[in-house]
Amino acid sequence: MFICNVNLNKKRMLTIMFTIIAIILICFFSYSIYRIIKEGSQDACQINSDVINIDSKNYTNILKEVHDNLDKYLGKKIRFSGYIYKVPDFSDMQFVLARDMIISSDLKTLVVGFLCNCKEAKNFEENTWVEIVGTIEKGNYHEPIPVINVSEIKKVVKPTECYVYPPDSSFVPTVNLF
Question: Model's pTM, two decimal places?
C-alpha cells in the first residue's frame, strides 16, 4: 500500500496560476494588436507595394487619395475592376472604369471612376465589366486628373458587391444641391 501525502503551498499555487493567466492575456492582447495593424494596413492604399489593388471596400478612398495627391502616385501600378463608361467627347481609346457610388438612403447613385487610356477600348462595349492593370499618369480632362494607361484588360463577371460608398464622413451629397 502506497500512501501519498501531498502538501500544497497555497501561496505558490496562486503565484503559478497568476503567471499562467498573465501569459495568456499577454498573448491574447499581442495577437489582437497584430490583427488590428495587419487589417489596417490592408485597407490603406499601399503605396510601397508593387500594385495598388482596389476593391469595393477601398474604391472611393483610393480614388479620392489619388485625385488629391496625384504627384505621389505617378508611375504606380493599379489593378481594379468596374464597368466601361463612355461619354461623347472621349476618343476611341478612352473610357472611365466606373462604379456606382450610393449617395443617398433611397439608393441614388453617382458614377465614379478613373479615366483610362487603352488601345483595346473599342473592343469593349459600354457597361461591360472588366478588370484592368495599368499605370497612373497625369492627364487632362478639363483639368489635370489621374489617367490610367492600361497595360492589361480582361472581361469579368459583374461582382456581387458592385456598388461603392462615399470615401468618408466629409462627403457632401450633390443630390441635395439641385
Answer: 0.67
Our CA angle for 144, 131, 49, nearest 5°, is 70
- In tens, the pLDDT along 62-83 reads 898 898 889 999 999 999 999 9
Per the CB < 8 A criterion, the answer to whether 85 and 126 are in contact is yes
The domain total for the chain is 2
For residues 107 and 74, membership in a common domain is answered with: yes
Q: Residue 2: inside a domain, yes or no?
A: no
Q: Which amino acid is at 151?
A: S
Collect all residues with Cβ–Cβ distance below 8 Å to 124 and sequence separation of at least 6. Answer: 84, 95, 130, 153, 155
Cα distances (Å, whole numbers) of residue 104 to 107, 110, 164: 5, 10, 12
